[in-house]
TrEMBL record:
Key word Nucleotide-binding present: yes
Pfam families: AAA_21
GO MF: ATP binding; ATP hydrolysis activity
Name of this chain's protein: ATP-binding protein
Domain ATPase AAA-type core intervals: 51-357
Organism: Bullifex porci
Lineage per the UniProt record: Bacteria, Pseudomonadati, Spirochaetota, Spirochaetia, Spirochaetales
Keyword tags: ATP-binding, Nucleotide-binding
UniProt-listed InterPro entries: ATPase_AAA_core, P-loop_NTPase
Length: 423
């Protein structure tokens, strides 16, 4: 479960911004009616859904990119060689381009709370820290400070008995590699636990589900998937899945184990999972999902499968423009699906103001991004507006600019005509 993320000096993000999934202290009747929007773990009340709204270029995507960059560095940086340049741009104004960027994530996995953070420039990692809460007190697992000396024993400090031969890992960890990534690759148990959280529990974007797991997930939730697809395409009435053997002709240049060329006509068979839809016009005719349905239907189906995986296993999913091309009712269905789960979480960005409904979302679930005068991104919550009452129309207030996070455009036919005439 995700508790909190903080990022600084990353693309349009200058000063530290915070995405906090810890629920605010809201005791109104409206909040009580949304009891399914929260859950409790380790005595902490957490939100299941948070949505980020704001004008174009206000920094919504920068937040998603920062989370993705953090995740990928944990997963992949053990492969980095010296001289690697990290693929991001610090904030370009006010001298921040030369300053370090920082990343912090507070999460729970296997019932234990962790705080993991690191700072870096585009060329090297500067600091790295991992703390946990074995009880109610914060305890150190390791810290790293590359400015503390030249010896690994000066740079690193470790909690008692948590790592096997930690300095062996440190010796193998270069300045472009996160220690946690290297330690996981070197089979250190606590590092593997952190690594697996980022790899399997914190999902960003839409990974493709395949194999028997996708089949089982579909079969267990077939009715729900069909109902959701009906919202997108009312002509679909049924759906099935088949595991089919497909012939595969070996490449002429394939070489056998004995070094002899294989016959060009060597045929192998591979098992492929195919999903088929049935339409109202003729229930006896099926359509291959991947080959014959629209791109939108395929996208919705894949999104639903991922969401079902997230809901079933209590994962966190982060999506940019999650509802692009989706009808409002289907977008709301997706949010309801997360809220119906036990402990799944969704962070999304959107321009769909119809979802700004206080009867569906708590005030602390609605976040805004705004571009400040210096060009940097700020993030704040509807919960921060103490004068907003829950009998008000949040969508109307947002569009009126009450929360600042809307573009101010002097747009009219006459204005545009003048601009065209000037050119």
């Amino acid at each position: 479960m995700l508790l909190e993320m903080r990022f600084a000096n990353f693309f349009s993000i200058k000063e530290e911004v915070c995405i906090d999934f810890k629920a605010g202290n809201i005791k109104t009747v409206a909040a009580k009616n949304l009891a399914d929007n929260i859950f409790t773990v380790n005595e902490e009340t957490l939100l299941k859904v948070q949505g980020i709204y704001g004008p174009n270029a206000s920094g919504k995507s920068s937040i998603i990119k920062a989370a993705f960059f953090c995740r990928q560095l944990v997963i992949d940086s053990f492969q980095n060689n010296e001289g690697v340049v990290f693929s991001f741009i610090p904030f370009k104004f006010d001298g921040y381009y030369e300053k370090p960027s920082s990343f912090f994530i507070n999460f729970i996995t296997d019932g234990i709370e962790y705080e993991y953070s690191f700072t870096l420039t585009r060329n090297q990692i500067l600091t790295e820290e991992l703390y946990y809460y074995p009880g109610k007190r914060r305890a150190k697992i390791f810290t790293r400070d590359e400015s503390a000396g030249t010896k690994k024993s000066d740079i690193y400090s470790f909690g008692e008995g948590l790592f096997i031969k930690p300095l062996d890992v440190a010796q193998s960890t270069g300045k472009t590699t996160l220690f946690i990534s290297r330690a996981s690759q070197m089979d250190r148990e606590i590092a593997k636990k952190i690594y697996n959280y980022f790899r399997t529990e914190l999902l960003i974007g839409l990974p493709q589900l395949s194999g028997q797991y996708a089949v089982d997930l579909f079969n267990e939730n077939k009715k729900l998937i069909i109902e959701a697809l009906k919202m997108a395409d009312s002509d679909i009435t049924d759906m099935n899945v088949k595991v089919e053997s497909t012939p595969f002709i070996a490449d002429t240049f394939n070489i056998s184990r004995k070094g002899m060329p294989l016959s060009p006509n060597t045929i192998k068979t591979v098992e492929i999972i195919n999903f088929y839809t049935v339409h109202k016009r003729n229930p006896d005719i099926t359509f291959n999902l991947e080959g014959e349905e629209s791109a939108g239907t395929i996208q919705i189906f894949n999104l639903l499968l991922i969401l079902l995986d997230v809901c079933k296993n209590g994962k966190t999913l982060i999506l940019d423009e999650f509802d692009a091309s989706l009808h409002t009712e289907l977008a709301q269905f997706i949010l309801d699906l997360i809220n119906a789960s036990k402990s799944a979480q969704l962070l999304f960005t959107s321009h769909n103001t119809n979802l700004l409904n206080i009867k569906k979302m708590r005030r602390d679930q609605i976040l805004f991004t705004n571009k400040k005068e210096d060009g940097s991104t700020e993030v704040y919550s509807l919960f921060d507006f103490k004068d907003f009452r829950e009998n008000m129309d949040a969508e109307k207030c947002y569009l009126q600019g009450r929360f600042d996070a809307v573009p101010y455009i002097n747009s009219s036919v006459a204005t545009i005509k003048n601009l065209l005439e000037e050119n």
